Amino acid sequence: MRTLFNAAAIAGFALGARHFARFLNEHRKNRSQEKRLEVWEGEGGAVPVEPTRTAAQIAPRNAPPLSPRDVG
Questions:
Q1: Cα gap 63→44, rounded to integer Å
Q2: Alpha-carbon distance 11 to 20, whole Å?
Q3: Over 70: is that where the pLDDT of 10 sits?
Q4: Which residues touch 46 (CB under 8 Å, ≥6 apart)?
C-alpha cells in the first residue's frame, strides 16, 4: 500500500511538473507573438476596419468550396 502511494505521488509530481513546463512554454510563445504583432502594427501592417478594431483582430474567412465547374 505504501509503495502504491509513493508511486502515485511521484507520478503526480511528474505530471504536475510537465503541466507547469508546458504552461511556461505556452506563456513564452504568447508573449513573443504579442511582441511580433505590436511590431507589425507599428510598421503599418494593421489596417483599421472599425474605430476600435484592426484587421489583425478579425479572423480570416475560409475560401468557399470549389464547384465542379471551377475545377475543369
A1: 26
A2: 14
A3: yes
A4: 40, 54, 55, 56
Contact 37, 45 (CB under 8 A): no
The backbone region for 8, taken as left when phi is positive above 0, alpha when psi lies in -120 to 50, beta otherwise, is alpha
Straight-line distance from the first to the last Cα atom of the chain, in angstroms, rounded to the nearest whole number: 70
Q: What is the pLDDT of residue 23?
A: 96
Query: How many residues can be counted in the chain?
Result: 72
> 31-48 burial, b if ≥16 CB within 10 A, otherwise e?
eeeeeeeeeeeeeeebee
C-alpha separations of 48 from 8, 58, 59, 62 in Å: 54, 11, 14, 21
Q: Give the amino acid at 37.
A: L
- The model's pTM is 0.50
